[in-house]
Each structure stands twice: as C-alpha cells, then as structure tokens.
Amino acid sequence: MSQWFAKLGVRQKILAVIIVTMVLAVCLSGLAFITYDMRHQQQEMLANISAVAQVTAQRSSAAVAFRDKKRALENLQSFVLVEGVQAACLYSLETNQAIAQWQSSAKIADVQCYKEALAEPVFVTDNEFLLVLPVVSQATTLGYLSVVGSFKPLLKRVKRVALSLLIISVLASLFAFFLTRPLQQKIYLPIVHLGEVARLIGKQSDYTVRAVKTSPDELGDTVDAFNSMLSRLEEDKVALEKLAYFDTLTGLPNRRLFMEKLARAIAHARINKLFFGLVFIDLDNFKWVNDNLGHDRGDWLLKIVADRTRNAVRDMDVVCRLGGDEFTVILLELNDRAQGEALCENILAALQPKIQLGDHSHQAGASLGLAISDGFHETIDGVIKKADLAVYQAKAAGKNTYRVYRAGS
C-alpha cells in the first residue's frame, strides 16, 4: 500500500488522502451511528414487547386460573402485530402444563414454555431474546407468560442505513473532489513549480532563476528556502568562475580565459574581415624586485602594471595575466598594423612613470611583442608563438621597447 501511494503524483496523493479521509470519516461515524441506533432500537423493541407482555399477563390471569385455552390463545394473539415476537406461551403452575402456545410462523420451532421466573425478566443472547413474566391473581402466581423474539427485523433497518451511508460516502467523495480542486491546485502547483525551476536550472545551469512565492504558509517558506539556496549557489558559482577564469592578484583574466578570448578574437576577425593583434608583455627586471624588495613589493608592482595597462588600451581590448610577470593584451578590430603599434606605444608610455615600492622608486620597464593577423589560416598556438618571438626580439633590442612580428624575421 505504501509503495503504491509513493508512486502517485502529488495531486493524486492529495486526492487519495481527501477521499480516504472522507470515506473513513463517513464509515466510522456511520458505524458508530448504526451501533447506537441498533441498541436504541433493541431497547425500544424490548420496552414495547414488555409493555404488551405485561398487559397480556394481566389479562390472562383468569384464563390461566380456569385453564381457558381458547381465551388464553386469544390473549396470545395480541403479539401478532408486535414486531420481533416469534412465539409466546402461557404456562399453568397448577397443571404444570402449557395452556396455550402461539408462534408467528410454522418455520419457528416448538415454543419452550418456562415453568419459573428468570433472574432477569428479559434474557438476551446475540440476536434473540426471552421474556418471562408471572401471571398473578390476588398476589398469587398462577403461571408464567413466555415470549421468544428476535432482533433480525432490525437488521433490515441496519442494511438500509448502511446503504444510505454508502451512497452518502460516494456523494461526499465526489463533492470533496470537485470542491477541493482549487485547494489541490494551491497545494500541488507550487510543488510542481519548484520541480520545474529545479529542472530548468539543472538543464541550463542558470542559477539566476527564482521560484515564485504564491502563499505565506509552509509552502511559501519552502520557496523562500529554495530561492535562498539558489542565491548561495549563484554566489558560489560566481566565486568559482572567478577563481577559474580570473587572476586572484590583479583581477585580470587568467591563462584559461585568455585562451577562450583569443579563440573568439580569431573567429571575430574572420567573420568581420578585420585585423586583430596579440601583445605579449614581459616586465624587465621583475626578478630583481622579488629578490631584493620582497614578494609583497613584487605583487604590488604587478597590480600597478595591470591597472596602467588597462588604462592604456581601449575598452574593447582584453588585458590578461598569464602568470608571473607575463601579461597579454588582445587588440580587437584593428584597421591596420599602425593602430596596433600605436597601442603598444601607449602601453610603454603608461608604464614609464616610476612606482614607489616602499623606500625604492622603481622604473617599470617592459618588453612587448606584437603579432597582427586577419584570422584566416591562423591558429591559437600559431599567433601565440608569433607574439612570443616578437618579445624575444624586443628583449634582444635592449628591453623597454616593442617589436612587431614579421614573417621570416
């Protein structure tokens, strides 16, 4: 049963709970009502039969005294219209014999006449009862009236009530189904919405998506918790992406993002039929700063170089740090080689002002290598190699200068 219930959808579970609860409520209340009604009807039947029996016993005193069988039988006929009575008998103590016997049907067994009173006037067993009353005249007991009956006629009433309750439970279930449909939607739609949002995030890896809160109840609290979790995941994703794609010291794109940016630059140049340039920057005498002034001064120098380089190029250009003292700049949408050379001169000019590193005033020189390409017949490794060769040419030329790669040079 639990496995079947677990396989149901949320909507079916809600509907099943409502119907089962409704049916159980109707059945339990019906069972209680039937039990109470059955006992009440039994008491009423016994009270009615006892009243008729008392009157019959009083009227039969003369018939018993004079052993008038005809009159005695006529008196017993008063039970004909009394529901539940199956047989009756008048017994005479004087003759120790039954004076008259009556039974409602030939199917009823012979009537057992009682010769003495019971401990209780009425003896009940399961669905049958026995009533024994004394026949008295002038304070003398002349005999006994025995009445045998059954509660089976009441079972018909119980069956009718049970059938009515069954019909009521079916109608109540249908009524509950249609009446609670808006309630079902308010309960299961937010859950379905959460599932859809979760699937969307899993498919697109977009942690900016948020679930909509539709109610201030526990479901609303669940939506708030879900959205809070998404915010944390979004923050963690941004932090991880920053660690994965950006240099922690300078905030510049790292080698991994540089490779992606360079690939896009090559594709962009091919599509738009424009030139692009790649500048390799290698700081001069950076090892001396680390060895003599300390790595903290070296880190400060790298931050200053990163800021000055960013300010020296255009907004569309991409400045990256590959590691150590190696920087690169991807120059996008160049009209010609002269424009790329002008940007290299801007970078060298931006690095000219001295940088104060503690008590030492440092001149941040750099060797630049520029490779320019239209993107056709070009690979990432190929353009990197060209820019790298140009850097060696700049260093060989005395440092603090730039060189442009030329085929065959």
UniProtKB/TrEMBL annotation:
<dbReference type="InterPro" id="IPR033417">
    <property type="entry name" value="CHASE8"/>
</dbReference>
<dbReference type="Pfam" id="PF00990">
    <property type="entry name" value="GGDEF"/>
</dbReference>
<protein>
    <submittedName>
        <fullName>Diguanylate cyclase domain-containing protein</fullName>
        <ecNumber>2.7.7.65</ecNumber>
    </submittedName>
</protein>
<keyword id="KW-1133">Transmembrane helix</keyword>
<feature type="domain" description="HAMP">
    <location>
        <begin position="190"/>
        <end position="238"/>
    </location>
</feature>
<keyword id="KW-0812">Transmembrane</keyword>
<feature type="domain" description="GGDEF">
    <location>
        <begin position="274"/>
        <end position="407"/>
    </location>
</feature>
<dbReference type="InterPro" id="IPR043128">
    <property type="entry name" value="Rev_trsase/Diguanyl_cyclase"/>
</dbReference>
<dbReference type="InterPro" id="IPR052163">
    <property type="entry name" value="DGC-Regulatory_Protein"/>
</dbReference>
<keyword id="KW-0548">Nucleotidyltransferase</keyword>
<dbReference type="InterPro" id="IPR029787">
    <property type="entry name" value="Nucleotide_cyclase"/>
</dbReference>
<dbReference type="Pfam" id="PF17152">
    <property type="entry name" value="CHASE8"/>
</dbReference>
<feature type="transmembrane region" description="Helical">
    <location>
        <begin position="14"/>
        <end position="36"/>
    </location>
</feature>
<feature type="transmembrane region" description="Helical">
    <location>
        <begin position="161"/>
        <end position="179"/>
    </location>
</feature>
<keyword id="KW-0472">Membrane</keyword>
<dbReference type="GO" id="GO:0052621">
    <property type="term" value="F:diguanylate cyclase activity"/>
</dbReference>
<dbReference type="InterPro" id="IPR003660">
    <property type="entry name" value="HAMP_dom"/>
</dbReference>
<keyword id="KW-0808">Transferase</keyword>
<dbReference type="InterPro" id="IPR000160">
    <property type="entry name" value="GGDEF_dom"/>
</dbReference>
